[in-house]
């Protein structure tokens, strides 16, 4: 039996196109907005926390120039020579650092506001999470070098609180995860960038000690020191379950130099004198420096193409130079002064070279393809075979 | 050509044909050279050309097929192959190609040729060349020296080509773990093979390990002990300074002997030294000579030299600094030698050098240098201590049972405490902290002394005497700071124990050296092969052998290329071509 089903009439949609005259003002407004969006959105999407390496280096350099240009009264002859440094150069550098840091901070705030999922991805990545400390460290360093703010003023205190509270919150979160939370176990996530959290604590401690707040300084120093020791041992063991550092990120190994130097400076600020412990930490840092510079092959593969990771060379050298300046001040031997000169010269040279390189390669500093940025998502095949993990059951 | 089968050397596999299903293992003895061109797994030409003799000329042939342990064996030849060659080249070629016929030939021809003449000088020369791969510049130095001395060397021997990959090869840590076992990684695993003959006693220099410097460590630390005892125990026991003087002279003499012997080994057998350097446990003993020198400087009697010059300290610490940069850097970043895998108590030797240098520097009056080495030593000691205490499951070198190597745990804290006391001027809290850690570890091991029995004596045991002596010296220092009856008795007890142990060990060493003559056994640890023997004495059926008849046919018709299948690792059976000139 066939039934003839009468097909219902198909619904019809009527489209009426009305031409409306668009006001010229709205036109420019929407166009400008589009232009601004087209210009800034790509930058914001690519500007991850790793770019704060640039500001870290610049602010550290500023601190170095400030320290060197004001030698204390009983300084050695070499130190006084360095005091002839023109202060206008220091002011220029300070302004440059402030400018770049402000720009990057604004961009990162926009990134947090507009692309919070990207920031979350960074937070979940075991290497990227450490760079969340970098903005606060940069601001603290800049605060210490501010030419118009002395440590005893209320503004300094307020700004210090503003910058240290996030560091402390991140500490509690990240360090707590290491020993309590299930998935992110230290033996698997530890990598040389983890030392950056300890550096953050030490910088906060130094700034606090300069203000006169010795107890807070001790708190930050102790937290930083304890976790630094744990990370140090874990990194040296290179446990077989440990994920390796991608080849591109080998310059991050220079953080082995940064952490003990910064601890040495912090302890020096807390104690008032460059005593036995500060000296030992400085020597450890110097040994790490010797150990890394005698291994150029380790860094060969990462130096093929310019990358923002190259800035990771600069600030550990600067911190080492700062520590050597304090060391040379404490021990008046000529070897110490020579060491200070050499390390300072090296750090200044490296920073200048990096600045020139970055200025010349501004187009490659923000890579076109975000997906293959190793600091965000290090892939396993990017792993360097020389520091690859071994199958423990072999 | 006659392929000789030495019945007494187990690694020569008799050459049989495919039907008999055995591997064509060839062992070469130089002197007679049968050279075959082989294409190794890399595809590159390995050997040189074959010279087959005509009927009039005597030619020699040598094979070198180095790609696997089996490959590393060489073709074994009698030295008087010329006579055989002269008979019928074609027939001899056939011998070379298929195995069955060789044996037949051998048995048919001259059964007495199975046994080689013993006193044949040519044989001696051939035998020496088995160690060539371990000699410096593959024996060329020796040849040059012999030529200089005027000794006639058989000139018509072809240049012995050492296997290329042995000379430049850097054995990975994994290779040592795979091939060796035991608390000192001394014993070969049953599945492994070594590159040198197992049954023969190797040349003395090849058997001389770097752990012999442990004797210097033990004796020179005794000199320091009795120097400290004579200065600190003046109120209750009088010990003359002569004891220190005598012990110090003995130590100097011993060090000179050991060092010059090892220097000879470096000159003549550099390859063996290199392999010791890559051994995960022996590498730590490379610190031992410098630590021994530091002990000698610390223990120097007052009347020999009251104040040592500062440059001496810098000279002694430079090699330690260089070695440290290399080894600690490897822990941090160097490939497969990760600490979680290679950590073992012998690593303490690489750390204790820092503390000994700090102690010497501080007693010389230097300020900054000792602190530098103390800081570096402390940081790396912490890492090592934690790693060893963890006994990680991925760790392959920890001895499963207690072994004298565990006494090295006591060394670092006791020397660190003395160094800190010297740097600071008094035995303060830091020094006491380190000292009590050392004491705790010492007692913790001493109550387990029953578990230290049952180990075969080896030279490395000497390195374990200096921790006991170090603990005794630290106790003497502590008792002079905190003088009461307990500390005095403790210092006396520990000093006596240390001395008794050293004396006992000295007697055992002398017995083993001169009576039992097994103080220096064949050093298996450095003779492991570069690759695992994949063949593993399995039999392979090869269809290529089916074509040997064709090959023979081609050869007998005057063709130049002969193909003989050979085992090479990873590829199973692989034919290689012999170029007949």
Automatic annotation (TrEMBL), chain A:
Homotrimer. GO terms for biological process: intracellular monoatomic ion homeostasis. Slow, weak voltage-dependent S-type anion efflux channel involved in maintenance of anion homeostasis. It comes from Ambrosia artemisiifolia (Common ragweed). The chain crosses the membrane at residues 89-111, 123-142, 154-175, 217-236, 248-268, 280-298, 310-328, 340-360. Pfam families: SLAC1. One of its GO terms (molecular function) is voltage-gated monoatomic anion channel activity. Its main location: membrane. This is S-type anion channel SLAH1-like protein. GO terms for cellular component: endomembrane system; plasma membrane. It is found in: Cell membrane; Endomembrane system. It comes from the Eukaryota. Belongs to the SLAC1 S-type anion channel family. Keywords: Cell membrane, Ion transport, Membrane, Transmembrane, Transmembrane helix, Transport. It is a multi-pass membrane protein.
From TrEMBL, chain B:
It is found in: Cell membrane; Endomembrane system. The keyword Membrane applies. It holds the Pfam family SLAC1. The chain crosses the membrane at residues 205-225, 245-269, 281-299, 311-328, 349-366, 372-390, 402-421, 433-452, 459-478, 490-516. InterPro entries: SLAC/SLAH (IPR030183), SLAC1/Mae1/Ssu1/TehA (IPR004695), Voltage-dep_anion_channel_sf (IPR038665). One of its GO terms (cellular component) is plasma membrane. This is S-type anion channel SLAH2-like protein.
């Amino acid at each position: 039996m066939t039934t003839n089903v009468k097909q219902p009439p198909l619904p019809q949609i009527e489209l009426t196109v009305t031409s409306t005259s668009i006001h010229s003002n709205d036109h420019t407004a929407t166009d400008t907005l589009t232009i601004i969006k087209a210009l800034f959105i790509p930058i914001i999407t690519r500007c991850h926390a790793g770019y704060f390496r640039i500001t870290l280096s610049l602010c550290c350099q500023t601190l170095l120039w400030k320290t060197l240009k004001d030698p204390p009264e009983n300084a050695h002859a070499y130190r006084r020579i360095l005091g002839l440094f023109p202060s206008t150069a220091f002011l220029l550098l300070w302004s440059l650092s402030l400018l770049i840091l402000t720009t990057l901070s604004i961009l990162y705030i926009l990134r947090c506001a507009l692309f919070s999922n990207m920031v979350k991805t960074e937070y979940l990545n075991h290497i990227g999470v450490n760079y969340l400390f970098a903005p606060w460290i940069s601001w603290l360093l800049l605060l210490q070098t501010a030419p118009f703010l002395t440590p005893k003023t209320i503004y300094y205190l307020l700004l210090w609180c503003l910058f240290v509270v996030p560091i402390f919150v991140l500490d509690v979160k990240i360090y707590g995860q290491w020993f309590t939370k299930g998935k992110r176990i230290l033996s698997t996530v530890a990598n040389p960038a983890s030392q950056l959290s300890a550096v953050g604590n030490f910088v906060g401690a130094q700034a606090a000690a300069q203000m006169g707040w010795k107890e807070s300084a001790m708190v930050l120093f102790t937290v930083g020191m304890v976790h630094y020791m744990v990370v140090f041992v874990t990194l040296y063991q290179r446990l077989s379950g440990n994920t390796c550092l991608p080849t591109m990120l080998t310059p991050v190994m220079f953080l082995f130099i940064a952490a003990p130097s910064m601890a040495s400076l912090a302890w020096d600020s807390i104690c008032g004198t460059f005593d036995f412990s500060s000296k030992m930490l400085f020597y450890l840092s110097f040994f790490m420096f010797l150990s890394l510079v005698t291994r150029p092959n380790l860094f060969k593969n990462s130096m093929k193409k310019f990358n923002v990771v190259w800035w990771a060379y600069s600030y550990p050298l600067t911190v080492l130079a700062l520590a050597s300046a304090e060391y040379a001040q404490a021990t008046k031997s000529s070897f110490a002064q020579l060491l200070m000169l050499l390390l300072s010269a090296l750090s200044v040279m490296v920073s200048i070279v990096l600045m020139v390189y970055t200025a010349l390669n501004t187009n490659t500093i923000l890579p076109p393809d975000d997906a293959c940025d190793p600091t965000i998502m290090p892939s396993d095949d990017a792993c360097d075979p020389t520091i690859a993990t071994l199958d423990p059951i072999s | 050509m006659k392929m000789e089968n030495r019945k007494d050397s187990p690694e020569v596999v008799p050459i049989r044909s495919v039907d008999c299903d055995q591997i064509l293992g060839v062992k070469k003895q130089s002197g007679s050279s049968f050279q075959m061109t082989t294409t190794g797994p890399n595809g590159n030409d390995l050997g040189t050309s074959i010279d087959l003799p005509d009927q009039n000329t005597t030619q020699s042939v040598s094979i070198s097929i180095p790609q696997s342990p089996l490959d590393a064996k060489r073709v074994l030849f009698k030295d008087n192959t010329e006579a055989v060659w002269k008979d019928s080249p074609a027939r001899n070629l056939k011998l070379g190609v298929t195995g069955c016929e060789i044996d037949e030939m051998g048995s048919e021809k001259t059964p007495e040729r199975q046994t080689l003449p013993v006193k044949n000088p040519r044989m001696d020369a051939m035998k020496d060349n088995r160690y060539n791969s371990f000699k410096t510049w593959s024996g060329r130095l020796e040849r040059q020296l012999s030529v200089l001395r005027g000794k006639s060397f058989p000139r018509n021997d072809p240049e012995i080509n050492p296997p290329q990959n042995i000379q430049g090869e850097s054995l990975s840590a994994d290779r040592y773990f795979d091939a060796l076992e035991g608390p000192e990684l001394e014993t070969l695993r049953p599945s492994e093979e070594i590159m040198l003959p197992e049954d023969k006693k190797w040349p003395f220099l090849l058997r001389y390990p770097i752990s012999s410097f442990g004797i210097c460590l033990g004796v020179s630390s005794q000199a320091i002990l009795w120097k400290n005892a004579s200065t600190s125990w003046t109120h209750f026991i009088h010990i003359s300074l002569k004891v220190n003087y005598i012990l110090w002279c003995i130590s100097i003499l011993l060090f000179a002997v050991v060092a010059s012997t090892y220097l000879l080994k470096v000159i003549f057998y550099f390859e063996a030294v290199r392999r010791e350097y890559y051994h995960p446990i022996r590498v730590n003993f490379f610190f031992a000579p410098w630590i021994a020198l530091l002990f000698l400087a610390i223990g120097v009697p007052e009347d020999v030299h009251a104040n040592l010059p500062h440059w001496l300290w810098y000279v002694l610490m430079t090699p330690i600094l260089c070695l440290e940069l290399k080894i600690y850097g490897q822990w941090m970043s160097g490939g497969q030698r990760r600490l979680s895998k290679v950590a073992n108590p012998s690593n303490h030797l690489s750390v204790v050098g820092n503390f000994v240098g700090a102690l010497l520097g501080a007693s010389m009056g230097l300020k900054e240098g000792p602190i530098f080495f103390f800081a570096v030593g402390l940081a790396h000691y912490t890492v090592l201590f934690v790693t060893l205490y963890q006994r990680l499951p991925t760790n392959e070198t920890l001895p499963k049972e207690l072994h004298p190597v565990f006494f090295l745990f006591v060394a670092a804290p006791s020397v660190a405490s003395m160094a800190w006391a010297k740097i600071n001027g008094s035995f303060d809290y830091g020094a006491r902290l380190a000292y009590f850690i050392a004491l705790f570890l010492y007692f913790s091991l001493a109550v387990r002394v029953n578990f230290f029995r049952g180990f075969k004596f080896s030279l490395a045991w000497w390195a374990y005497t200096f921790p006991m002596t170090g603990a005794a010296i630290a106790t003497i220092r502590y008792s002079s700071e905190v003088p009461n009856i307990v500390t005095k008795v403790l210092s006396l007890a520990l000093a006596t124990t240390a001395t008794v142990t050293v004396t006992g060990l000295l007697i055992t060493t002398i017995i083993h050296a001169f009576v039992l003559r097994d103080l220096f056994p064949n050093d298996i640890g450095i003779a492991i092969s570069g690759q695992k023997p994949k063949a593993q004495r399995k039999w392979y059926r090869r269809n290529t052998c089916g074509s040997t008849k064709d090959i023979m046919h081609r050869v007998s018709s005057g063709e130049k290329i002969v193909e003989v299948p050979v085992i090479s690792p990873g590829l199973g059976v692989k034919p290689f071509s012999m170029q007949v000139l």
